[in-house]
Amino acid sequence: MSREQWAPQEQANMKQWGHQIVHHFPDFATAHATMTNASQSLYNSPVILFITIPKDSPDWSIFDAGAFTQTLLLTATNRGLGSIVTYNSVRYPAVLHQVLTVPNDQRFIVGVSLGYVADEPINHFRSDRVALNKLLHFRQGTRRQSMKKLNIGIIGLGRIGKMHLENLVKLPEYFQVVSISDPARTDLATIADHYQVPDYYHDYHQLLEDSAVDCVLIASATSTHAQIVRDAALASKHILCEKPLDTDVNRIKNLLTFVKQAGVQLQVGFNRRFDHNFSRLRQYVTDGVLGNPQIIKISSRDPEPPALDYVRHSGGLFFDMMIHDLDLIRYLAASEVTTVTAKGAVLVEPAIGKIGDIDTAVVTL
């Protein structure tokens, strides 16, 4: 592409640069000779990096190449090297393909010259920079405004349900909590008033009948999850359900089939997959950065034993607590489980053992 084909802003930048660099030298002739010699010798750089992308790449790939090139420039500076983006180095791509034996399906985007900076007048020139607000325009909230705000109903206002309520009301640009439901709480009216929730019900079926509700968050007792999910799907409500869906794998499979046939979205609250630290670990695994994982060890501890009344309805340590670790290890390993060995005991709170649960377990997958 010739300079005449550049965008107006780029042509103006080059014109300004040319005007300023002339005044950096004693006269025009010296400036012209110095710049011509530097350009023709590709700035005497010992190394030139050529950035290419496949010719069939979408246009936005050029931005990726630009970001990668910028990272190279910053890295070079950090290592004490000088760098310059060289227009002339990719001016004749056909020659580059032939000389460098670069496949013809690759498109040359830019060349980057690297080397140690000599103490020459040309290297002391610094052109004026275009103000950032002339290049970038930030519009706060553009993406958020394009998203439909969801009206959500919460079923179950125990410890976790209350936590979800508190989090959701802090995101008014995304969610409006329009109703809450809990069969046991006597303070629903107070909670609704405090969090400015329009409606509240003791019977969750009434919440599901509310046409204002787009989706539901199920945070009720474990033993009720499957039935409420089924009822919500029948009511055409999208669903976020706390884990587990059920304690029987066949009932879970039947429930997933039912939800799919109902045409609604269902997500289980395995939140660790969305933690940026675990996401990065997963990326390291899939990219081969860590090699081939042989052992993944996860240790989890609660700060104190849960309330006994909670334990009675939780589904047990494996379903209520360790389920996050079991999901996480599948996620990090990017593979499925073939065999399971589990050992459990009561080592901390004897009262938990008296109601049929355990407080300590070791599982090998």
3D architecture notes:
The longest helix is centred in the N-terminal third of the chain and has 18 residues, at 61-78. The chain has 365 residues and is of the alpha/beta class. The chain is built from 15 helices and eleven strands. It is 41% helix and 16% strand. The protein folds into three domains: 3-135, NADH Oxidase, CATH 3.40.109.10; 149-269, NAD(P)-binding Rossmann-like Domain (Rossmann fold, 3-Layer(aba) Sandwich); 275-364, 2-Layer Sandwich (Dihydrodipicolinate Reductase, domain 2). The two termini are 58 Å apart. The protein has a six-stranded parallel beta sheet, sandwiched between helices. Strands 1-3-2 form a three-stranded antiparallel beta sheet, with helices on one face. It is elongated, with a radius of gyration of 31 Å.
Main features:
single chain, 365 residues, alpha/beta, NADH Oxidase, Rossmann fold, Dihydrodipicolinate Reductase, domain 2, 6-stranded parallel sheet, 3-stranded antiparallel sheet, 15 helices, 41% helix
